[in-house]
Every structure is written in structure tokens, then in C-alpha cells.
Specification:
242 residues; elongated
Length: 242
């Protein structure tokens, strides 16, 4: 999927026939689903994040012989100005989730970790857009595939590292959704992997504070402060308990 700003012009016209440049935060669009213009699909695949380009499409790569009345006349050549704001390649991830559980289990661990990372990146994108419910679903999808049994200690370390990132994301997102009990549960799962993780301790402290469990909150936050004594966020939360 990609986030793009685009403006389309007919040949020799100054006014655009379509644009999304007035939108403050254009949504993520999928090639072949949300973006179906042949030339635009091909053009976007040649671009990278932050790039700006101008494409001229003949009718075969645009709206064809018929055009698209009333805006696009027959056999129209069109020009698109495009800026790629963000890009996430989800093909491998989408393919993976279309498989049965048995088929997923045959995937090599490195591919599973890559799929989980892609899902987490999608979650991060949605989180930045403040779509917390959607972000939570993406993080849960990533977590759901990280339960496989490792064949070595090295594999366990890789799985744990991936899990830890997702669990921290879930804990924070549930805080944003004002569901502190779940935020605490995921924070504690993160601490099972790394008991000295300051972010996990901080999230657990915040969650307990939201639930007015002040002693538990103080315990988590003091432990976080021991690890990061100069962290302003941790110290500010502790001041609320003074």
C-alpha cells in the first residue's frame, strides 16, 4: 500500500479533473484495488518514498477508447503529478494470511518475522494517523503468528525480539483506546520477555494509574525510574503519585 498525493490533468487543460491534494492526511491506498489506472500503477512501482514525479499516459494506460464520461473524453491523453508520502509493501504479508494454518507453519521463520514486521509497520502507520482500533488489529495480527516453537535458542531470541516490539505497541494502543486492563496485560507479557524493559514498566504504571491502583502504579514506575532515572515522562507520572 502507499500514501500518495496526486493531481490529474487532461492534455492542454490547466484545471485538474481529479486531486486529493486538499486532504490533510491522504489514506493508504492499495495498488490494483484503490489505484486501478494502469499507467499510475506502473508509475508508482518505479517510485520511492518522498519522490515526486510527473507522468503522461496515453489512452491505453489511462481511460481507454471509451474515456470516462463526463469528465474524461474518449481517447484522452492525461497527465498526473504524483508525490509518494509513504510506502508499505504488503504483498508477501497478504499472501501469507490467505494460507491455512498448516501452510503457514511450513514458512521459514525469517519470512514469518518479515510478515510480522510488515503488519507492525501497518499498525504504526495507522497509529500515527490516530486510527487506534485499526492499529490494534494489525498489531494483534502480527502477534498471532509469533507463537511458533523455535528450533534453537537463536530462533527464540529472534521471536522474542519481534514479540516484544508488538507487545509494547499493543500496550500503548490500548492506553490510547482507554482500555487500561488490556494495556496492563500486554505490558506484563512484555515484561515476561524483558523484565527490565523501561517502556513496558512505564506502560504498566500508566495503566495502573488509570485504574486507580496507585500502589501497583508506583511500583512499576519506580522500577522504570531505576532503569531510566532522567526520563521526564516516567518522572512526571511519579509526580502524580506524590
Amino acid at each position: 500500500g502507499c500514501t500518495v498525493k496526486y493531481t490529474g490533468y487532461l492534455e492542454h487543460w490547466d484545471e485538474p479533473f481529479c486531486t486529493n491534494c486538499y486532504s490533510k492526511s491522504p489514506g493508504l491506498m492499495k495498488l490494483g484495488k484503490d489505484i486501478t489506472l494502469g499507467g499510475l500503477e506502473i508509475g508508482l512501482l518505479t517510485m520511492k518514498k518522498g519522490e515526486v514525479a510527473r507522468f503522461v499516459f496515453t489512452p491505453d494506460y489511462a481511460y481507454g477508447r471509451q474515456g470516462c464520461p463526463p469528465l474524461i473524453p474518449p481517447n484522452a491523453t492525461v497527465m498526473f503529478e504524483v508525490e509518494v508520502l509513504d510506502f508499505l509493501d504488503s504483498d508477501e504479508s497478504d499472501t501469507f494470511f490467505e494460507l491455512t494454518a498448516e501452510q503457514q507453519d511450513t514458512f521459514p521463520l525469517q519470512k514469518v518475522l518479515k510478515v510480522a514486521d510488515t503488519e507492525r509497520e501497518f499498525g504504526n502507520y495507522l497509529y500515527r494517523k490516530r486510527h487506534f482500533e485499526g492499529a490494534k488489529d494489525r498489531y494483534k495480527r502480527a502477534f498471532s503468528i509469533l507463537g511458533r516453537s523455535p528450533s534453537s535458542e537463536a530462533e527464540q531470541c529472534q521471536i522474542d525480539a519481534s514479540k516484544l516490539l508488538v507487545l509494547l505497541n499493543l500496550s500503548l494502543t490500548y492506553l490510547k483506546l482507554e482500555r487500561p486492563a488490556q494495556a496492563l496485560a500486554y505490558g506484563e507479557k512484555a515484561l515476561e520477555i524483558d523484565q527490565r524493559n523501561a517502556k513496558a514498566l512505564f506502560r504498566c504504571g500508566q495503566a495502573c494509574l488509570c485504574m486507580t491502583e496507585y500502589e501497583k502504579a508506583r511500583d512499576f514506575l519506580v522500577r522504570a525510574q531505576h532503569i531510566q532515572p532522567f526520563n521526564h515522562d516516567i518522572n512526571n507520572e511519579l509526580k502524580k503519585l506524590a
